[in-house]
Design goal:
single chain, mainly alpha
């Protein structure tokens, strides 16, 4: 089974780590300084930050428990970015300010839309085979 200690796996974990830090820090600043302006948007960004943290931790480790965490986080991330992205495209006034997942992550170069697919691809590529047991 491939590890995230080198190569593409390390890059994937690093990108998730950067997003975890960026989304969490940004949402905390927004919640502490102007929560009354767009509480739902800022709370969704905080949730996204927690999801990115969970995905980072799950992808960075080897074993059944970290893989389950990674699958749950990446799956939730995919549903979140597709749901919030669609809602913000169909009704932009729904969120007075952007979230990490607004317009499918357009404010972040659409990486929030690409990341869950990259995470799923990595998890499928590195899944344990019956001969690995």
């Amino acid at each position: 089974m491939s590890s995230t200690r080198a190569g593409a796996g390390r890059v994937l974990v690093a990108v998730y780590g950067v997003f975890a830090l960026a989304a969490t820090a940004r949402s905390l600043v927004q919640l502490l300084t102007k929560a009354d302006e767009a509480p739902l948007a800022y709370s969704l960004s905080a949730l996204a930050g927690l999801v990115y943290i969970a995905a980072t931790l799950g992808l960075a480790e080897v074993g059944p428990a970290p893989r389950r965490l990674a699958w749950a986080a990446v799956g939730f991330e995919l549903v979140g970015v597709l749901t919030v992205g669609t809602l913000t495209v169909l009704d932009p006034e729904l969120f007075p300010d952007q979230t990490v997942w607004s317009a499918y992550g357009a404010g972040y170069g659409w990486l929030p839309l690409v990341l869950p697919f990259a995470g799923i691809a990595w998890l499928l590529r590195t899944r344990p085979r019956s001969s690995d047991a």
